[in-house]
Design brief:
Elements: E1 8-17, E2 20-24, E3 30-34, E4 47-51, H1 56-78, E5 88-92, E6 97-100, E7 111-118, E8 121-125, E9 134-137, E10 145-154, E11 157-160, E12 164-167, E13 178-181, H2 187-199, E14 203-205, E15 214-216, H3 232-239, E16 244-245, H4 248-256, H5 339-346, H6 368-374, H7 379-387, H8 443-450, H9 453-456
Parallel strand pairs: 13-14, 13-15, 15-16
Antiparallel strand pairs: 1-2, 1-4, 2-3, 5-6, 6-9, 7-8, 7-10, 10-11, 10-12
Helix pairs in contact: 2-4, 5-7
Length: 468
């Protein structure tokens, strides 16, 4: 191994393999050295000298390049940054709000999302956020406060916009109307509509914009070409589902100083000259024509509101029951002015004829024959009782036989004491009369008894159950 100079070092090539050489120094220093930097023909055991020098000029050039790159990065990404959008209110109506803002500035950042918030809650994402600069929010409540804000999210961070507070209009505030005029054939009416819009502080234009609320025209043709097909703005109004009304709607809103319904002002309908503010009554509020019962007078013509019609009434025969004695009201006892009315008040049949009413047992001292004699009336009186509905008094008792016209009391037949002694008689008290209560007849025979006048007198006391 040869000696080395002050600026160079002597090494012996110990191993040469795969592009790397192992060099051995004077004091057993061992370094790895690229074999491509060895002189040509150097093999294992060759002695080489390696000199090391510092390049000051190259260091300065490298430092200069490094700081130039840092300044370029700072000027590109550190000076400009994304800006928060500035939200503005464009128009507000009773149920919608139109917002607008300048085009978003992202600088060198990339956009992640642009969302609209209502009352602090994310509502939706703005479509095409890099080019879209306005939005219209519908379906709001009438006369209600709202807050709106935009949130811009980028790779450089999140940038919220300013907060806007909006209150939707009432029905009497027509300043939110923004119409687009199409073809209006009557020039005078067009000028009147524009004057009405100016009076209401509303807006109009010839092109459909994002805050346009109505399309006003009298023909779907394009302006200046009445024989041509539908105009461009008319077709766009159909695509945006804008209400297409006639100019009379604007005049009606200005006349009534409030938002008017547009159903009767659509294109193709005939607008009414007078606008009524009263709503159509529902079926439950419509006054239905009612008939007045016979014998009842009503100055207003109001009739019976019962769900079932009143029972038919026929005048009594033979002059026994007068029309004034029969009440025209249901469940009201007629005034006892005639004997027929009194007889009708004493016997009232049950509404359900299939169930026999309980019989009333006469009290002590009363006679059955007297009650039967007093209840014998003509067939016309019984027919009059059938025509009347009423309620029987629970405290009713058969009257005592005080009339002289009452027939004598028939003898009471003897009752057998036992089957073996048919001749035995039953001892009765002188102060009481035994009454035999017959069992109720079957339902089939009850129908026949209702058709008989004489049998109906033996039904006894009944009680009326009101169906109303």
């Amino acid at each position: 191994m040869a000696g080395s100079s002050k600026d160079s070092f002597t090494f012996t090539v110990g191993k040469l393999d795969a592009g790397m050489a192992i060099l051995l120094g004077e004091r057993a220093h061992l370094i790895e050295f690229p074999s491509i930097l060895l002189p040509a023909g150097a093999t294992t055991g060759s002695i080489v000298n390696i000199a090391v020098h510092r390049n000051i000029a190259e260091e300065k050039r490298r430092d200069s390049d490094f700081w130039a790159l840092q300044k370029e990065i700072y000027d590109t990404f550190g000076v400009e940054s994304p800006k928060a959008p500035k939200l503005e209110l464009r128009n507000v109506t009773q149920t919608s709000v139109t917002l607008e803002w300048p085009q978003v500035q992202l600088a060198t950042a990339k956009l992640r999302s642009l969302d609209i918030y209502r009352n602090g809650v994310r509502l939706a994402a703005i479509p095409q956020p890099t080019t879209n600069t306005s939005t219209k929010l519908s379906g709001l409540e009438l006369n209600t406060d709202y807050t709106f804000q935009l949130i811009l999210r980028t790779t450089a961070g999140t940038y919220p916009s300013n907060l806007i507070r909006v209150r939707t209009h009432t029905m009497t505030d027509t300043s939110g109307i923004s119409v687009c005029f199409g073809t209006v054939q009557d020039e005078e009416m067009l000028e009147e509509a524009k004057a009405a819009l100016q009076e209401m502080r509303a807006k109009w234009s010839d092109k459909i914009q994002i805050d346009t609320t109505h399309f006003v025209c009298t023909s779907s043709a394009a302006p200046g070409s009445p024989n041509a097909g539908p105009g461009v703005e008319y077709q766009r109004a159909l695509q945006l589902s804008l209400p297409i009304v006639q100019p009379q709607w604007i005049l009606a809103c200005a006349q009534n100083k409030k938002m008017m319904p547009i159903s009767q002002f659509y294109l193709g309908t005939t607008p009414s000259t007078t606008i009524s503010s009263n709503r159509t009554q529902s079926m439950s509020q419509v006054s239905l024509q009612r008939t007045v019962a016979k014998g009842a007078t009503s100055p207003t013509g109001a009739g019976n509101r019962a769900s079932m019609p009143p029972a038919p009434r026929r005048p009594a025969a033979n002059g026994e029951a007068d029309a004034a004695d029969t009440s025209a009201f249901v469940n009201q006892t007629p005034s006892p002015k005639s004997p027929s009315a009194k007889a009708a008040a004493t016997r009232v049949r049950s509404p359900d004829r299939r169930v026999p009413a309980p019989l009333s047992v006469p009290e002590e001292g009363e006679d059955v024959a007297g009650a039967e004699g007093d209840s014998k009336t003509s067939a016309a009186a019984i027919a009059a009782r059938r025509q009347r509905n009423g309620t029987m008094d629970r405290n009713f008792r058969f009257p005592s036989p005080a009339s002289q016209d009452a027939p004598p009391v028939p003898p009471v037949p003897a009752l057998p004491t036992s089957p073996t002694s048919p001749g035995a008689e039953v001892q009765t008290s002188p102060t009481s009369v035994a009454l035999e209560v017959p069992p109720p007849d079957p339902i089939e025979k009850e129908k026949k008894r209702m058709n008989s006048v004489d049998v109906e007198e033996d039904i006894g006391a009944t009680e009326e159950i009101s169906l109303n």
